[in-house]
Amino acid sequence: MNFLAVLLFDHGKIKEAEMMSRKLLELNKNALGLKHPDTLTTMANLLVTLQTQGKYKEGATVGRQALDLRREVLGPEHPDTLKTGANLVLSLYWQGKKSEAEHLVQEVLELQEKTLGPVHHDTLHTVQVMVWMRKFQLKYAQSFDLLGRLYLSYLSALGAEHPITINCLKEREIVKALLATAEEGKANTSGMAALNVSALPPSEANEDTAALVSRDITDNDTAGTGGSASKGEETL
């Protein structure tokens, strides 16, 4: 039944997706047990719905539990374990757990590059998470370089006309402008905030950008970027 929560999420019914995930999580715990793969998938999906709504404290609690259990049940290098780690990063960051978030995103990216490859869609999702972190930190040069990596990967796999490729290029141009302004010493706090909506927590930016960060890119969107979700996984 995880697909129902995914369907609600995909149609912008985030609160309904959260309620569905909560109900399903309780049912799975009672019927299947805490460590069953379906229970862990539901837990991971709940993290996404909470984070998308800016509920970072509860999201981090749920996400930590899902990550710990997936490490135990599936192993630390399993794609689903790493995916959960990537989705947990921003909930940690926006709680002020910046050191923990930094350590986790670096660990996840290193393991994904090792086990999945540098252009696998899960790896690219984690790179996108890192892009956001670097923008939050006003580290525009690093963000610009990471977006260059994403753009080349999307260009090769999806083509120049795909919306993901186009949006990535647009985002890179925004960061390029911010970087130039910062280097010229003309930027001020209000100017940066007005220009860069992505510097806000996802809950304070628009819903589309919030969803981009906290969910995985679907297999259909990343055909050709290598690999797919595990069989039976219904992740947001």
Give the SSE layout.
Blueprint: H1 2-10, H2 14-31, H3 37-52, H4 56-73, H5 79-93, H6 98-115, H7 121-136, H8 140-158, H9 163-184, H10 189-195, H11 207-214
Helix pairs in contact: 1-2, 1-3, 2-3, 3-4, 3-5, 3-11, 4-5, 5-6, 5-7, 6-7, 7-8, 8-9
Report a brief summary of the structure.
The chain has 236 residues and is mainly α. It has helices at residues 2-10, 14-31, 37-52, 56-73, 79-93, 98-115, 121-136, 140-158, 163-184, 189-195, 207-214.
Your description of this structure?
- By secondary structure, this protein is an all-alpha fold.
- The protein is built from eleven helices and no strands.
- Helix 5 runs antiparallel to helix 6 and helix 7 (121-136) packs antiparallel against helix 8.
- The longest helix is centred in the last third of the chain and has 22 residues, at 163-184.
- The two termini are 13 Å apart.
